[in-house]
Structures are given as C-alpha cells and as structure tokens.
Specification:
about 240 residues; alpha/beta; CBS-domain; 3-stranded mixed β-sheet; globular; disordered N terminus; CBS domain-containing protein; CBS_dom; AMPK_gamma/SDS23_families; CBS domain; repeat
Length: about 240
Amino acid sequence: MEAFLLDKVQRTDPIFLPSTGEWDPESLMKAQTVLEVLQKTEIADEDPWVPLDQSTSLKEVLEYFTKKQNCHRVFLRDGQGKVCSVLSQLTLLKFFQRKIDSIPVSLLETRVEQFFESGDSNYRRKVEVVPYSESACSAYQKMGFKGLSEIAISSSSGSIIGSLSGKDLIRNSSNYLTSLYKPVALYCGLESPDKRTCTRNDTLETIIDKFCEGNVHKLYVITPQNVPEGVISLCDILSVFLPH
C-alpha cells in the first residue's frame, strides 16, 4: 500500500520521519510539487488539452465532448489566442437546463430505457463497485487501475449507498493521507444515494436536473432493489443534443 501511495520513493526522502523510518503524510504534501505530479501522470491521456476559439459553434463543442475520448473540458481562446475561460461538460449541460423551455417536450419525456436501448452508451456497462468496509486507499487504487474518475460504494446487500471520487480528497485534505485508511463509507461521508442514482423510468428532464443540481458527472441506473445495473455519463446525455 505504501508503494502505491508513495510511488516507490526511497526511505531517505523527507516524507519519512528520520527517527522511526515511518512515512509521514504531512511531509509528503509539503515535499511533492505540481511538476512531480505532472511528470508521473500521463496528463494528455487523462484529459487532453483542447483549445477552441470563442466563436466555435455549439455543435463542434458537442462533438468534442461526445466523440473525443476523455475530453471533459475545453479551453477557450480570445481574439489574441490567449486562454480566457474553460468550458466543462457539466457547464454545457447547465446551459441546456436553462434552455429547457426550448427543448421539445417529446424529447424531455423520453425515458432512460428508450435512450440507451441501442447499447451504444455506458448504460449497460458493468458498474464498478467497492464494498463499504474497504479502505478509501484501496478504493482509489482500484479507480486508478481501471481508469475511473468515480466508483460506486455498495452495502452488504449490494445496493448503492454512495460513491467515491477525487472531490473526496479535497474534502479530507485537512487530514492529509492518514484518513485514506478509513473505511470508504466513513471516509467520504455518504450523502443520500438518490442524488447519484436514477431508474430506467426516469425521463431526460429528470436526468438533466439530477446532473445539474447534484453537480455530478455520473448517475447510476438502479433496479427497484437499489442494485446498480448501468451508468449514465455526462457524455451520454450531451450526445442526445448532437444533431444527427
């Protein structure tokens, strides 16, 4: 586990207390720089750099978000070519939410099952979960191995009780890395699972509201027994608005 957290650093590094040889999370935070993070992470693969002009059409932005792999945000350039703003998938969906009255009612009333019955989206993909008693560190490790930005947390009966994402690292920053040894359910301070779940019978309008009001990037499709059977991403929803 130490190897995972410390990326094979040597015990002579300042993240270890010289008196005991044990790793010190506070020193780790102080010793590591942003440059070191960039050197150890394939940033281009994780979230590619996509600069667009402010005059780029909405259709083109939608194509980037729905057809370019791992494109979660684009950077906007002004007339001088300088980056002036960032547009994320969630920000774009909130734009559509504000324009809800302009969207055909027939589209808004379409149910989840109808949208994803073709199997082209994540809807029928296996949901990756970790049990509530597993450590947060182990859960993050699984996310890293599988290239996930978020992972569901399940109860002993297999029902969804929450999820873990990078946001939880920020929430626990005051405890640094020591809190990673807590059970994942305790670590992330579970909220109501309703905010991150939906059913086959929910409509597009309901799904949009859940994404925007919960500021989430995924919704788990659950059965009547609260067991996950699929995932809906922001990319899935944005693709609905892309002209065909």
